[in-house]
């Protein structure tokens, strides 16, 4: 059985393996000698993945890459395209890849303990930044973050937990999450309907089988779909059943399209209440209001935006089918409320959400914006 329901004894038993196992191997075409995989735990002891790419002891500014939820560091290393790590290495940067606790490379992806984005902002990102700083000394450290990785980073930044970054590139969403109308509606409906019965939305139809409780979800996602691949349908047409769209279909090369179930894991439903709260507030908010362990995080990240102490480039595809124009909204709101901040916005014409990193043409259409931003501040 692949998908477990809440409270399964097997699930509890597996928790012990959480810190004893290593992340699934990365898929890349780099020289293995240049890839350093570091045993790394978050501030609360949860095993994460941290990888440094580069020869020798390293030189050049460091760039920490943060993936989106259910994705992994693999999204920056696609062997089938010219990927962001290639581009950064060629320009003299030292890429660092964090697999934070929502990574599909981590063995506890579906069985580990539940968390909220508070944990990512409080325990995962600051710990990774602190570790990297210790390794790179006084070299500059940038962050390039995608989707929920960027949203969680905004919470870390406004909490003052990662001060002194040389610059931040945020893709898709930052301080002002705004989801497509039907997405937010379905998020609440799906959350209610599915509560207690299943706790993940799978993406790989091959592991689900033809007759399962997930079949209606895939059937719904497959309606009016032009692509016959059920994994693609549930991501492209339905973003794990939410009704949003994660990428512009023709931007993926055939190999990437074929690997979607490997690049994006099942989506946990128990995270929806935190996401829903943010979506209703139109800003990144802390989940834990009374638990003192989280008091370092601001209750409302937008209200604490004055703490941002680094230049920020907000990136978004003009056709982002998940977060719409959240980034443009963020630029406008920050320009009004925090005019002293160095915040810019770049829109990628014709691009959706994930294809800004996974797209076969991303090196030409997207990464130049990132390199320009970093280059001006290195
Ligand atoms: Zn497809």
TrEMBL record:
SUPFAM superfamilies: alpha/beta-Hydrolases
Cofactor needs: FAD
Alphabetically ordered keywords of this record: FAD, Flavoprotein, Oxidoreductase
Occurrences of domain AB hydrolase-1 (ranges): 61-151
Biased composition (Low complexity): 1-11
Transmembrane annotation, as ranges: none
Region (Disordered): 1-22
UniProt similarity note: Belongs to the GMC oxidoreductase family.
Protein name as catalogued: AB hydrolase-1 domain-containing protein
Organism: Streptomyces siamensis
């Amino acid at each position: 059985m692949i998908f477990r329901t809440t409270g399964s004894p097997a699930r509890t038993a597996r928790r012990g393996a959480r810190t004893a196992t290593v992340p699934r191997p990365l898929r890349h075409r780099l020289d293995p000698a240049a890839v350093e995989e570091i045993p790394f735990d978050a501030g609360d002891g949860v095993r994460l993945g941290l990888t440094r790419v580069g020869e020798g002891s390293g030189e050049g500014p460091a760039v920490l890459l943060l993936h989106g939820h259910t994705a992994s560091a693999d999204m920056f290393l696609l062997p089938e395209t010219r990927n962001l790590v290639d581009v950064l290495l060629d320009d003299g940067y030292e890429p660092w890849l964090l697999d934070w606790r929502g990574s599909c490379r981590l063995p506890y992806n579906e069985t580990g303990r539940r968390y909220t984005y508070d944990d990512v902002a409080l325990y995962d990102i600051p710990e990774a930044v602190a570790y990297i700083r210790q390794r790179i000394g006084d070299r500059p450290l940038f962050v390039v973050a995608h989707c929920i990785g960027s949203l969680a980073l905004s919470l870390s930044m406004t909490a003052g937990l990662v001060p002194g970054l040389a610059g931040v590139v945020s893709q898709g969403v930052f301080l002002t999450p705004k989801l497509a109308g039907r997405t937010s509606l379905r998020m609440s409906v799906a959350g209610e309907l599915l509560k207690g019965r299943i706790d993940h939305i799978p993406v790989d139809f091959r592991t689900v089988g033809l007759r399962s409780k997930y079949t209606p979800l895939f059937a719904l996602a497959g309606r009016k779909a032009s692509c016959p691949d059920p994994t693609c349908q549930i991501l492209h047409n339905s973003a794990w059943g939410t009704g949003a769209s994660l990428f512009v279909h023709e931007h993926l090369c055939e190999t990437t399209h074929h690997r979607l179930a490997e690049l994006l894991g099942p989506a946990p439903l128990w995270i929806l209440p935190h996401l829903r709260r943010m979506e209703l507030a139109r800003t990144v908010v802390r989940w834990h209001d009374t638990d003192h362990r989280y008091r370092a995080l601001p209750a409302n990240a937008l209200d604490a935006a004055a703490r941002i102490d680094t230049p920020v480039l907000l990136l978004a595809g003009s056709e982002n089918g998940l977060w719409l124009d959240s980034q443009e909204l963020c630029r406008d709101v920050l320009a009004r409320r925090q005019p002293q901040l160095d915040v810019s916005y770049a829109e990628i014409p014709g691009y959706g959400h994930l294809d800004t990193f996974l797209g076969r043409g991303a090196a030409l259409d997207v990464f130049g914006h990132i390199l320009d931003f970093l280059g001006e501040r290195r």
